[in-house]
Amino acid sequence: LKLVAKEDYTFEKWVDQNGNTLSPDTIIDSALFKKLTGSELSDANNKLPIKAVFRKLDQTDPATVNPALRDGDITITGTAPANTIVSLTLPDGKIVRTFADDKGNFKVNLQEPGLTYGQTVTVATNEEGKLETKKEFVVGTNTDKLNQAIKEAKDLIPDQAPDNESMQDKKLREVIKNGEEVKNDKTADQDSVDAAEKAIRDAIGQKEKADQKDDLLNRLNQEIAKAEAILSNEDSADLNPDYKKQLEDAKLQAENDRDYLAGKDGLADRSDEKINEDINELSKLNESPIYNTGEVYINELKETDTQISGTAPVNSTVIISLPDGNKITTKA
After folding, report:
1. Residue 186 has pLDDT above 90, yes or no
2. Residues 128-162: b if buried by 16+ CB within 10 A, e if exposed
């Protein structure tokens, strides 16, 4: 007699009509047949009042992977039923088999470059007498952006913190430390990784903004100091009145810009672009002070002339006012 069990089932035992279990090697002779049925074995119409009992197979306990798979991992560790074969189907289709030890621990080493974010590893376990169980594990927590943010942040500050480190630099060190801890934490999820990267990006933005502000303040102070020197030196009495007025106005505007950056109340908002324009205007005036050092002679002008020529003190700056109100500045 050949029995074929349905999928996921296995033969368990024979039982008679009274529910008694028959051993697998029971021989049904004429005496036992008559005892079971009350009929002779020779009667072809009689049916043997015994039945086969099948049992549904239990599912093998699934494997666990711990720590969770991460981008770049070259080792997979986890637990499975003790002393069983564990089969891992890798993202490239390759199947690797290993054994879970008597405590249920298993470990598989992979080749470089290891796992990549978004890939799937399938782990199958199969205890004797039970059904195979497969479980998929997705490679998570892509740390590429976090790694890049950490690198960029480290490039902005010295390795060792100076005694007078700015508040922005201290904050940057703090978020870098947190980012590295999250990056190395095998239990960190993608939200934690993304949050750590954002914190670093925000700190970088704050530092860049503070550095830009410091740069503007330094440039303002430099140009204001140059203007003050021009306006107060022994030759200041000989400054061209128009030039002197332009310089004083530009210096005043730069001083207002400086007060604004320093947080002084009551000043209108202004952009960094506008402050840069003010600095460049003052710098241009500082580079070429105009003094009344002598007479200027213009050669005779004729209608339709397209150029103006003449003489002035050597190396002096000459400002020519045109009929339309425009001014041309040149050097003798």
Report:
1. no
2. eebeebeeebebbbbbeebbebbeebeeebeeeee
